[in-house]
Design brief:
Alkaline Phosphatase, subunit A; 490 residues; disordered N terminus; 14% helix; 8-stranded mixed β-sheet; Immunoglobulin-like; alpha+beta
Length: 490
Amino acid sequence: MKTKRPTNHTIEFSHFGPGKPGRKTLLLGAALTGLLLALQPALAQPVGNVFLIAMENHNFTQPNPTNSPQQIFGNPAAPYINSLITPGNPNAAPVAYAVAYYNTGNGVHPSEPNYVWAEAGTDFGVHTDADPLTANGNTFYDASPHLTAQLNAAGIPWKNYQEDVQLSVSPTNSASGTTGPVNPFYGTTQYNYAVKHNPMAFFTDTAVQNVYPLAQFFTDLTGNTVGRYNWITPNQYDDAHSALTGGFTYLGTHYTGDQAAVAQGDNFLSHIVPQIMASPAYQSNSVIIIWWDESEGGDNSNFTIPEIIISPLAKGNAYASTVPLNHSSDVKTIEEILDLGTLTNSIPVAETNVFGGYNNVATVNDLSDLFQPGTIPVAQGVTVARTGYVFDRRTQLFVQQVQVTNTGSTPVSGPVWLVLDNLSSDAALYNSAGTTANFPPLGSPYIGVNVGGDNVLSPGETATVTLDFADPSRGGISYTARVLAGMPTP
């Protein structure tokens, strides 16, 4: 177990007990152990339902925007998407987005490995777009932990909506053609269901479970019968993967080639997102995550992937987060929102990226920075143990050491703060870093907990913080400890 050592204090003379026993409850000369603290602020709003819409094959920004495929940022064929990320635009009011969202790993291509990653936190080293078959080598995930299996185990309802899946013989078989029903978004009979864009299809226990055509999604929205977790895959025309034969006319402009694909995706989002936002299922503090699958043209920080969230709990007004993120960030955040354990599937060493940290679900940055502070629950299982007080005759301060231990199974990302609520009125925390202004109760002194250069309190790790109290009346020192983590200041 890695243990952080406290800052050294020189004590000239000491005794336990700063004053009058009995006036207040004092913990003198003994450690308080086993105090389990919830790391969420007292009045944080829980996230309701999760809607994840999967889009395709375009960078957010890239070194040369004129290359094909063209980037999304500033693209005239994507006016709706760009309205979401433009501060001051009415569409941007409930929006935050990432400017440092990178390919989930080196060489994680083509599409299918990224969708598998969104379900399992790894691609298991298999890079193919083939339908799931033993002969294709992409059905060995069956016994591996994955997100929808976690949801089943926890009894959390989820649904998998796949556009055009009803035109296939099975959710595990792709289907495309030109003789389908007229598509309500682009008005032709072309259809294209791709299993490679259906993450659950590669796991036997959930491959054909809770799979619905996209039309059912709108019925469920109206009836408020969506899942708590909802995965939505448009077909390969509506997700901007492929251009329609003959191109696409959008808002009076006719586009062909890649720009037609971009316009088709923008058109789809401009219809489905407002319908979700108008539903009771969204208005209960839910979140829409618009997710793109992979970078195009490079797996380095010059090629960013779009990642947009829409929620009443987002920071809003097109807040642009610079925190490095990737697909593991989405998995981690969804698990935190739904109070699930962290997936621990191994990632091939050759795939780990060199920016934004190691791309493992347990240690990656989550999406907290896109939300209002305290919205995303951080890991539970932190205990606080306190020693008795020692009087430093030189400084005339009472000194106490407090140990903060992560007894859970999930890393706690810093910064980590120890908050002292209900501190006795005669006492003051001399080395306070400030008082709580964001998370009630307000006005409580707090101090930073040194969790080292990695800024993470790992499972089993203990960090020690030293508290210096002024108590001129010697009336006794008491307080209630609270731990907050993952936000700049409490």
